[in-house]
Structure formats: C-alpha cells, structure tokens
Design brief:
This protein has 1238 residues and is mostly beta strands. 7% of the residues lie in helices and 36% in strands. The chain is built from 13 helices and 87 strands. A hairpin with a 5-residue loop joins β6 and β7 (112-114).
Length: 1238
C-alpha cells in the first residue's frame, strides 16, 4: 500500500494558531535549563576542552593495527553517544580499533564512570572501529551496534539498565577482505521500525597478495581479452574495473580495484535484520531496473529526508574512483539514483557527509569532506604527479570527481550548486567526519570537521622516493611493500570549526572557539553532556585520548527530546521546526550516520531576540504533525508522540507551482555547436584554461525580410556557419548551412544594407592554426537580394586572435564601422593582444590605423560594446579585458580617448568576460554590466585587498616558449607563492625540478625562492576582483556594485540586458559555466543560466531556474535577445560550447512595446540610438540599440520595452544627438511602434 502521508504535503506553511497544542499537554514535559548569562556584554561562544582523565574518561584512544599484514588506508575509530540507562544523562562509547573499546556512564556534573565490563561490552581481541546507539528492537532503550573492518560486527541489546547482551538478530554479511565503516539507521519503508545500512571498505588490496608484476600480467591479459571483444574472467570483472580515458588524442588504460558492496538490512518489526541483496534488492539503476549495490569503497553514510517528502533518502561517501551514491527513496523503501544533473561534481575521496539547511531557506544543503590541505606547503606536497587533462567536449551530465570538500547549496528544487570554494570550506585537511551544529546559537548551523591520518599516503616525496628505490633495486616483495607503509609519515592535523557568517560563507574560528590540538581524529558525536541546552562534543582520536569539549555558549536556547511510538522510540526521521517571527530553524532526528559514529537525539534551538510568536512543529515519522504553542527559552522539552495531539498536514497548505517566465523551445532549433578537440597545453603547458573553446556567440537578424528575427550561429573548426529561419510562432526553425569553418568562427554580425541586402561580418580565430599570423581577422560577405551570397574583399591578417565584433557609427558619417577585438596572441598567453578599428567606406571596411593605435597591445579583450556613455551623441566603446580592467574609450570625433582611469575603473582589474550596456537605475544614463570569473572557483580565498592574483610570463626556460607563472599571496607564509604544483611546473620548466628537488621543498618555497632572478625576465599582470559587477554611470565616474551572491557562484561569459518581466526595469541574463580548465582546476559548473530582475535602482534579485524556466546545464557562451513571436515579450537564445543551442520563449511577462527604428539608409536599424518610454510619472530606463555586445553576440534590432503603465510617448536620441519624441495613441493596443529617423 502506498503510505498515506506520501500523498500529503509535509510543508513549511505555518499552522493555524488555534490548532496548536499547549505545552501543558500531558505528552509534553517541560524542565528548566540552567541559567546562562544573556547580556550582550557577557555573551560568548565556543568550547573549552575538558581533561578526560579528570572527569573519568581515561580512554587512551583507539589503536591502529600493529601488524602490517595488509594495506591500512583506514585506521581510526568512532564514538557513539546516547542515554543507555534512561537516567537523563548522555553516555559515551568509544570504539577501540585494535584495542579495547570503552563505555562511560555519565554521572552528571562532568563526571563519568567506566562501566565497560559491567555492561557486558568487554570484547578482548576484537577489532571495533564503528559504533552507533539505536533502539533496534523497539523496547524503549538504546542498543549498540559495533562494526569492524577486520572481523565480525556485533549487535548488543540493552536490558534498559545499561547492561548489554550480544544478539544474533542481524544476519551480517561478512567478508574476509573488508568490513564496516559506518552505520546508519532509518525507517526506509515507513513500517514503523528502524532499518540498517552499513557502508563497507576493503581491509586488504590486491598488492597485499601478489606483486605488481604478477598483477600486471593478469591485468594485461584481461585488457587484451576486452580489446578482442572477449568476456573478462568473472572474478576479475567483479574485483576490478578497466578504464579507458582519452587524453589529448591518446587513450590511457588503467585498472582500478573495486571495493566491497554495502549492505542494507530490513527490520522485520521484531528487531531482526535481513540483508536485501539479489532478488530482494531495494535499489534501482537509472533505467528503473533492480540492481545490487556496487562494489564501492564506502566510508561515511547517512539517511536524511532531503526532499521533505516524508521518507529517508540516502547518501553514501565512497573513496577513490568509486563515485558517491545518492539514493532517493520512493516512499516504499526502494531507492533510485538522484537525477544526473542534481549534482554536477563530487569529492574524489569522500569520507563523511552531513546535511543541514545552513542558509535557513527551507531546503536541505549538505557537505562531503575530502583531503585537501589548507596549508599551501602541504597542499603542494600532497598533489603528486598530475596527468594531462582529458578533453570533455560536450559532456554535461557527467559528474567529475574533484580533490576537495564539496558543499552543496540546494537551489530550491532539489538540485544542488557546489559552492565549497566560495563558502571557504573547500579544504579542511585529511577529513573524516563533518557535523553541522549551531554552536553559537545564532540560529544558523556552524560546521565541525575532524581530521588527521595515521599514514600520509598522499606524501608525494615519499612516493617518489619509493619509485626511485624500485628503479634502483628492483621490484619490492609483498612483505617489503607492506613494510614501506610503516615508514610513511604520520599526519596529525587540527580539527576545524567553521562559523556560518551569512551569504553562504563560513569563517574559520577553530582557535577562537577553543579547538587547536593536532591529533589523528576519526569519529565525532554531539551530545548535551551537561544538560544545559547546548551540544557538547566528543571526538575519537587514534593513539591519543579523545577530545571532550564543553560548549560555553551563553546565548538563549531551548532543547528538545522526542519519544516516539514503538518500535521507533527515538522518533528517528522526525523533523523539528522552530518558527519565531518568520525565522525558521529545522533539524531531523537521526541514528548513526556520522563517519564511524552516532550522536545523541537531543536537539537544541537558538532563541533569537524577543519574538512575538514562537511555534514548535514536530513532523513525526508516520506523517502526522504536532504543533506546540507557548514555547519559551531556557527550557528542555520532552515530547511524547503517544501523548500529544497529532494531525495530518493539509496538502492544500502549499500553493500550486507558479508558471515559469520562460518555456523551453530548444526543440524548434535541434542543433548542437560543433567543436573539434584541440590540445592547448601542447604549446603552453601552464595555461590557466583552454582558449580553444571560447565560442560561440549567437546572432539575431531578419535574414529573409519577413519581419521575424532569424538565428545565425557560428561554428567551431570542422562545422559550418548556420542560419535558422524563423517560421513563426510554434513552428520549427529551418536550418540552412553556410560558410565552412576552416578555423573556429567567433562572432557574426549581420547588418542591413541598401536595396534589401544584408552584410555579414564573421570573426575568424587563428588560435588553432599552424601559421596563425597568416589568417585574416574576419570574413565579409553580402547576401544580395537578387544575386544571393557574394564573397566580400579579403581583410588584413593579424597576429592577434579575433574574438568579439561590435559595430557603431564611429566617425559620425552615418554608416556603421567595425571594431575587432584581439582576444589573445596564439601560443603567447597572456601577452597583450591588439584590437583594430575598421571604417566603413561606401560599404567597404578599411582598417583605420590612426584609430587602431589606441588599441595596440591593449590587452586580452574578451568582449566589446558601443554606446553613448557621456551624452554627446557619439558612440563610446567599452571593453571587457582578462587580466585588466573594464576599459572605457570615449569618442571625441578622432582617435578614441582611454578614459578608464579618469572614470575610476583602472583599479577594477579582473578576468572580465562579457560586457553590455543598460540603464539599471533609470536615470537616463547608460550603465555597464560586466561578467567575470565569479567567486566560486579555486582562486577564491587567494586574493584580497592589497594582494591581487598575479601572473608572470616570459621565456624562463630559454626554449622559445612563453612560460606562465600564476601566483598569489599566501597569508600563512607571508609571501607570494605559485598557484600551480611541482609536477606541472617542473614538466614545463625542468630547472624547477633541478633546483627544488622535491615536492616538499617546492611547497615550502616562495615564488622568489623558486624562480629567483628569472622573474626579472618576465612581465606581470594582476587581477583584483573576480566578481560580476554593474558600474553605475555617475557622469564623471562609474560606481561599481557587485551582482548578488547567487550570481557570483558561477563563471559567466554572456550577458543580456532586457526587461524580461515587463515591469519597466532593466533585467539581466547571465550565461554561465566554464568546463575547459586545466588539470589542477575543477570545472566551473555551478550555474545553469541566471535571470536577475532589476529594481530600477541598480539592484537585482536572482530568480532560481525552476522559477524562471531557464535550465541550461552546459558551458554557456554567447546569448542574445529577440521577440521571436511578436508577442511583446523578450525571448532568449543561449549558445553552448559543443552542446545544443538553447532557445527559450518568454511566456509569462507583462507584454511590452515593440519599437522598430527606421534609420537612414546607411544605418537602417538605428544602431546607436537610445530609446526611452515616457509615462505620466516620468521616463523609463534608457535602452541602446547595439550591434555586437554581451559576449560575441547580437541582439535583435527591434527593442521590447516594458510598460508598467500606459505609455505617453517614446523618446529616441539618434546617433549624432538629435532627439525625437513620438506620441503613443492613448487608446491604442498595438504592440509595435515604428519610429523613423528625422
């Protein structure tokens, strides 16, 4: 039967107050908490470490294995917290690893007693590394689960007094080659009892049993069988995976050892557990077919209702190449993999996971921890040998693994943007267990992470020394190979505390809040050990006493314990929500689910200020809800499910989903951009990113004179320029191939010419060609209304690679001239490139050397846009520059004047990508919007005021190659350090290895120490900001304003300006993501295209993709606006590199007024004109007609302006400065107005 509560909404809607239950209900017990100083002067937050031996916790720490008979990747243990005897005090169990574990009874007042033997838990000779308390048999007390990597695991049942008896109620699946790392329990099938999931890991690997040479012989035989199309040996196929990866045209084959499958055990209702394998599997693959759990390297696992549908979902952390598994429960206890695009990337060596709504928006976020160090020195030492990057052209739904922590921000539709880099938590050393908890009781969860390793398997110098030994003395025997692990360096590291600082960012407060010891830690448990209403901490250490921390936070609080109906007596899976004056705090009751550990089920809440109203909502595991009114701080609430009124939440409480602003019309195009693989790094190995995948742009123009805008789409090398003819609303576009792409086509501009003709200007990249200096900058051709297409004159060649194209009447003679942006000099990045001005001489473009002089070696120009910024009637020019500022060149009638510094923009150096113009504060002046790299990249945290990102370039190696050194200032070291690692740097510049000798030396050295006097041979550029920004035009200067935080979470290239919602204010669209990165850099994939609604005052509000309808997952490049169906709403085309061209119809905006300008014969579209709509209360925003703006793209010449009220007139400032005002008929309902030039 389908559970009833699956049909109802367990939502966030406030319950009706009259339906609330009083806290005086017989099912609610209220006990006062000890008083805390609540004055602001006395307020404090953080922990004090408690000496374990002084309070009776004399546990020496878990013991690692003493005999090196197998590879020991994992050698730590966990801790479990829970009230085992029902006396109201939380007790602790520490797993002992190879040593004995200990159970400590909490006597109160920070006194504990070792009751291990009396409790029946002395297990001599047993290896125990995982522990969790849970009421497995439903009798009202906590039983104990103990897991082992190296032997049998156990369930001990509790008699209620804290005495335990071994039980055979679990039909353990055991393996001689591995065992359990973590327990997690939840009622997966909603039958009222707790089911059990165990993550498992190998305790031995193949080279423990045979030499590498012996294994390689077997592997080669199996690889050859696969190449011949023969089946692999079944046992080999079960234990190993053969991978083939294409890297820059060559195929690399690797053989990876599989792990051990996890096990899900179903509770039959009496506390007996049966594994669900084979025909009883509860898991399905992407196609819905039953599947056994894969042979993975499982470490952490947790159940959590991530989608708030009332059933527990499952996340499993896997080490090495095993991908993490994220399973969504269908409500019957069967699991499907999360949608491929729900997560874009995962950690490479995932250790532990925890969930929390850290931004309090009502949706579950989560973190997975890995092993990246926060120390530059150690990070470089642990990087090891880096392989060349593989090219992933067009791969969108893949999920790459990255070597860092991953923090997932729920977008509101249960897809997650990975933002650890922005949030400041991408690195926390060799990490094991993350836990979210509100330490300072400010209403937002903070983060604790345990760290350390008994052996640093990532020490690259150790691995290099081992390779040299093998090269000199021959292969190691099995015994010698194992003994090398004994010599590996230990890696004690501090555990970390990160305070949530708002805006999705965390700050490191480790020492300020009382942590600081460097140990080899493992599991962690949170519990209110002193019953004062906040959560204390117990951390298990290896070969060192545990860390016990008392929470000293003084802020007001309340705490809650739930008592559920049998058999789920701890109400595992219940959700607690405290609502106070619109503020929301929500937590879930869990069992186990922390790496090797489990926490107590008491939950604490902050009490913010003096709320007028406080409501505590309990959503019980059976789908019912209890609502408590009259909640007060300073109390502990015990709530019994059997004793409080409950109701099924009203499914009508949540409104139906709103119609999205845009509807996907991509199927009307049905075409993908062509991109041919190219090895950028063969020429400059240390390029920060691939430059061969910068395109394409996209262009709107009426190609056939039917009044509807058609699409023009450039191609990468090997494809063709494509035309797509618009056949009217709802009809597919008709494709027409055109010019073949002998090299990448960048941007294409289409300009109406006299006689109904069209002139085309097609940018041509020389980046991938053998002789780049021999390639013309752009192609010209005309489509004659009678004679068809005709090739134009050949244009000059240039050393610089052509990128953006923009047109305007530069010289004031009435026709449109052309600007060609120099993007890069092939094979000489980041040497400044030159850009050029071409003047239109009776339809023929001629390079203007005088005007081009201002742009000689101006920089790496990513994008360009023309517009009259100073109101003098002339077209000024704005450039977005990589490793430079947003540059402004004022047009004074002759050569352009560089006014960048005068206007206050010279300090805004960045990696600017796209640029557009619009009036964002409705003052009639054109402002600037520029896209940048964003703040969610590996570079975040490496730059700050006074310490920009830097790049040095020159031939340091004396081999004719322009070498590149990226650098940043490291605060800990107090000097400039290289961004790239020892392996890549020394491969590009061999003298680095000769002089530095080792990874450790390289990591400990400053930039000056590594490169010395060679730096004098280089040039230097810098970037101070990576934020996307608008620059508001204040007349004599531009005022920079960062776009909202949500916009900063992804790299953006394309940018469009339009009133997308029709409210009379200019909005923005950002085309996001960049995957074409180098091997040490995670791809930038947190975006899916972002709509930002303007407020008319220079501010913007981001609209989530599931509300805007814009869901674009690939590498977006150019984007352009047109009203394709003449309904008065701006539609959108978005280009993706090596992926489908996307088209979106605007279906929900308030219709605006279409304005078509009829300019003079040489500028029939009125390019450069500025349009404003006049209303009773004044004028709306200024809109400039552009030809080539954003990123390599062209918007429609027909403008759609929003109408918040009835328009009175339309004002046009024509090129040259003449102003006209055309009345709009009062009773007219026409959607289009044709305005002719005077």
């Amino acid at each position: 039967m389908f559970p009833l509560h699956r049909l109802l909404t367990v939502g966030l809607a406030l319950p009706v107050l009259s339906a609330a239950t009083s806290t005086s209900s017989p099912g609610v017990t209220v006990e006062p908490l000890p008083s805390h100083a609540e004055s602001e002067a006395a307020a404090r937050a953080g922990f004090t470490r408690v000496d374990g031996s002084a309070i009776g916790i004399d546990f020496p720490g878990s013991l690692g294995r003493s005999a090196f008979t197998s590879t020991q990747y994992v050698d730590n243990a966990g801790v479990a917290a829970g009230d085992i005897d029902g006396d109201g005090w939380c007790d602790l169990y520490f797993a002992g690893g190879e040593g004995p574990g200990r159970l400590y009874r909490n006597l109160g007042n920070w006194r504990f007693a070792d009751i291990t033997s009396d409790a029946g838990l002395a297990l001599p000779g047993r290896h125990i590394n995982a522990a969790a308390f849970a009421d497995t048999d439903g009798d009202g007390d906590l039983d104990l689960l103990l897991g082992s990597l190296y032997g049998p695991s156990f369930l001990f049942t509790n008699d209620g007094s804290g005495h335990f008896t071994p039980s055979d109620a679990v039909a353990w699946e055991e393996s001689p080659i591995g065992g359990i790392t973590t327990f997690a329990l939840a009622d997966i099938d909603l039958d009222g009892d707790l089911d059990l999931y165990t993550s498992r890991y190998l305790n031995t690997i193949v080279t423990d049993r045979m030499t590498p040479a012996e294994f390689n012989a077997i592997a080669r035989e199996q690889i050859e069988r696969r190449r011949q199309g023969l089946p692999l040996d079944p046992e080999f196929a079960r234990r190993f995976t053969i991978n083939e990866i294409e890297i820059n045209g060559s195929v690399k084959t690797s053989v990876d050892e599989n792990g051990l499958h996890d096990v899900l055990y179903l509770n039959d209702g009496t506390g007996r557990f049966t594994p669900t394998t084979g025909v009883n599997t509860r898991f399905r693959d992407e196609n819905g077919h039953p599947v056994d759990l894969p042979e993975d390297w499982g470490l952490g696992v947790t159940f959590r209702d991530v989608d708030h549908d009332g059933d527990p979902d499952l996340y499993v952390c896997n080490d090495f190449e095993s991908p993490d598994r994220f399973w969504i429960n269908d409500g019957t206890g069967h699991f499907d993999p999360v949608a491929p695009l729900a997560l874009r990337r995962t950690s490479s060596s995932s250790m532990g996971v925890d969930f929390a709504d850290f931004d309090r928006d009502g949706h579950e976020d989560f973190i997975v921890v890995d092993m990246l160090s926060r120390s530059h020195t150690l990070r470089k030492k642990q990087m090891g040998v880096m392989l060349p990057p593989k090219n992933t052209l067009g791969e969108i739904a893949n999920r790459p693994q990255i070597m860092q922590n991953t923090l997932y921000l729920n977008r509101g539709d249960n897809t997650w943007a990975e933002i650890a880099q922005y949030a400041g938590v991408k690195a926390s050393e060799w990490s094991w267990a993350p836990v979210f908890t509100d330490i300072d009781l400010d209403g937002f969860p903070d983060l604790i992470i345990t760290t350390g390793a008994i052996r640093d398997f990532m020490d690259a110098d150790f691995q290099e020394a081992l390779k040299r030994r093998i090269a000199e003395h021959g292969p190691l025997s099995i015994e010698e190979n194992l003994l090398t692990q004994k010599a590996m360096p230990r890696l004690p590291r501090p555990n970390f505390i990160f305070r949530y600082a708002g805006d999705y960012r965390f700050e490191d407060v480790t020492r300020a809040w009382g942590f600081g010891a460097s140990e080899i830690s493992g599991g962690i448990a949170l519990a209110d050990l002193d019953n004062d209403g906040d959560l204390d901490v117990a951390i298990s250490n290896t070969e060192a006493p545990p860390e016990i921390y008392r929470n000293d936070t003084t802020a007001p609080r309340l705490s809650v314990r739930l008592i559920g109906e049998k058999p789920n007596t701890a109400a595992v899976g219940a959700r607690l929500t405290l609502l106070t004056d619109g503020r929301r705090q929500s937590v879930e009751i869990t069992a186990g689910g922390i790496y090797a550990s489990g926490a107590d089920t008491v939950r604490t809440f902050a009490w913010p200020g003096d709320p007028r109203r406080a409501i505590l909502i309990v959503d019980w595991p059976d789908g019912t809800r209890t609502t408590l009114d009259a909640i007060h701080p300073g109390n502990h609430y015990t709530i019994r499910q059997a004793g409080v009124p409950r109701a099924i939440p009203d499914k009508q409480a949540n409104p139906p989903p709103r119609r999205t602003l845009f509807a996907d019309a991509t199927d009307r195009i049905g075409y993908s951009h062509v991109e041919t693989a190219y090895n950028d790094f063969a020429h400059q190995p240390l390029l920060p990113n691939r430059l061969s995948q910068l395109g394409p742009g996209v262009t709107w123009a009426d190609l056939n004179g039917d009044g509807f805008d058609d699409l023009v789409f450039p191609s990468g090398r090997g494809g063709r320029l494509m035309f797509f003819l618009n056949n009217g609303p709802e009809h597919p576009f008709t494709p027409q191939p055109s010019v073949e792409a002998f090299s990448d086509q960048t941007a294409v501009l289409v300009n109406p010419a006299p006689g109904g003709n069209l002139d085309f200007f097609l940018g041509v990249s020389n980046f991938e060609l053998v002789d780049p200096h021999k390639v013309i900058q752009f192609l010209t051709f005309r489509r004659d209304a009678r004679a068809g297409f005709q090739q134009g004159p050949l244009m000059p060649t240039a050393e610089s690679t052509t990128g953006a194209l923009s047109m305007a009447d530069i010289d004031g003679d009435g026709d449109l001239d052309l600007f060609i942006a120099g993007r890069v000099v092939p094979n000489q990045y980041p040497r400044p490139a030159s850009s050029f001005v071409y003047l239109n001489d009776l339809g023929v473009m001629t390079r203007d050397d005088a005007r081009s002089a201002a742009f000689a070696e101006i920089g790496l120009v990513s994008a360009s846009a023309f517009g009259d910024l100073d109101g003098d009637g002339a077209a000024d020019l704005v450039l977005a520059c990589e490793w430079g500022p947003v540059r402004v060149f004022l047009n004074r009638g002759g050569p352009f004047e560089d006014a960048t510094a005068t206007l206050g923009l010279d300090g805004e150096t960045g990696w600017w990508n796209g640029v557009h113009l619009g009036d964002f504060d409705n003052d009639g002046r054109l402002d600037i919007v520029a896209t940048n790299w964003g703040r969610n990249s590996k570079y975040e945290g490496s730059y700050r005021p006074g310490h920009p990102l830097e790049i040095y370039f020159g031939d340091l190696n004396n081999d004719g190659t322009r070498d590149i050194i990226e650098a940043h200032f490291d605060q800990e070291m107090g000097c400039l350090v290289p961004e790239r690692g020892f392996s890549c740097s020394s491969r590009a510049m061999p003298f680095v290895r000769e002089e530095m000798k080792s990874f450790g030396n390289f990591g400990a050295a400053s930039l000056q120490a590594i490169y010395g006097d060679r730096l004098r041979k280089t040039e230097r550029l810098e970037a101070k900001t990576l934020e996307h920004k608008v620059f508001l035009n204040r007349g004599d200067h531009f005022e920079p304003r960062p776009l909202p935080v949500r916009a900063q979470l992804a790299t953006a290239l394309g940018v469009c300006v339009a009133d997308f919602d029709g409210d009379g204010n200019e909005d923005l669209f950002l085309a996001e993501n960049y995957f074409a990165v180098q091997v040490e850099t995670p791809r930038n994939d947190a975006g899916r295209g972002l709509l930002l609604l303007g407020d008319g005052r220079g501010g913007f509000t981001p609209v989530p993709g599931h509300e805007s309808g814009l869901l674009i997952w690939g590498e977006q490049r150019g984007a352009a606006v047109a009203d394709i169906d003449h309904d008065g709403r701006p539609d959108l085309a978005v280009a993706q590199n090596a992926a489908p061209l996307r088209l979106f119809r605007n279906v929900s905006a308030r219709p605006g007024l279409r304005i078509r300008l009829e300019g003079p014969p040489a500028n029939p579209s009125g390019v450069g004109a500025i349009i404003r709509v006049k209303f009773a209360g004044g004028y709306g925003p200024a809109r400039v007609v552009t030809r080539g703006a954003g990123y390599w793209s062209q918007d429609s010449a027909v403008q759609v302006l929003g109408l918040p009220s009835h328009p009175l007139a339309v004002q046009v400032t024509w090129p040259g400065g003449e102003v006209t005002e055309t009345p709009v008929p009062e009773k007219s309902d026409a959607r289009e107005l044709l305005i002719a030039a005077p």
